[in-house]
Amino acid sequence: MSAIVAERLVAGRGGFRLPSLDLTLMPGARLALIGPNGAGKSTLLNTFAGLLKPVSGRLSVAAPVALLPPPGEVEAPFTARRMTALGRAARRGFASDLDRADLAAADAALDRLGVAHLAERPFDRLSSGQRQLVLIARTLVQDGALVLADEPTATLDPAHAARVAGALDDLAAEGRAVVVATHDLSLAARQDRVLALTPAPVEGAPSGILTPATLQALYGAPLSPCPTCGRPH
Ligand SMILES: Nc1ncnc2c1ncn2[C@@H]1O[C@H](COP(=O)(O)OP(=O)(O)OP(=O)(O)O)[C@@H](O)[C@H]1O
After folding, report:
1. Residue 179 backbone class (left: φ over 0; alpha: ψ -120 to 50; beta: rest)
2. How many domains does the chain have?
3. Is the same domain home to 178 and 220?
4. Which atom in ligand 1 lies closest to the alpha carbon of residue 40?
């Protein structure tokens, strides 16, 4: 079964509308959404997550969905460990409290991202990048068949960004479909496919989409060096 099937899907919110989109994503596939500020990446992710109703068209999504919201959206008076472990509690409802297995999974996810030392720290007193890593750890423990990550590496230093990219690769290797919305073109380049949200969305292999010409058309300015070939232009 596909992780996402979108047919003539129009996503939007308020007065904003994305162009009609056809997309199929198989389990284990990795897709990057790129596009300028306001292009509709978060709108599309939230539509995939079921938080926004499609304006029109057909959308079928595998469950469960694990969603990493964009940086800065989450506040909570919990420790980093509890905040991470709540990713598992959400899956089975909030009726029962977290158990040892949940806390152990949280510790393993924090360790995977190089922030095990933050486990006992109050989430609300972490730096923005540290909070982001905790929320990514929470996403890792959610056991999603479809993992949606909105700007996962924004606010991260290069070493932590590399760990996150590797952790997302691991999720895909486990058979989960992964969609990242990102301005980080090196992260986009390591996905299997890239969907560029332009007035007419274009989708393909990173080598076909992350080209100087496509990026210049997408962002309205030349980008150098080329993110896939590394050459200045
Ligand atoms: N809550 C909202 N209500 C109405 N319109 C919104 C809302 N949030 C965003 N929009 C509009 O929807 C459009 C797409 O926004 P969206 O956040 O999906 O873009 P994005 O590609 O994720 O942008 P960015 O890269 O800046 O995060 C924008 O024109 C934005 O102004």
Report:
1. beta
2. 2
3. yes
4. 18
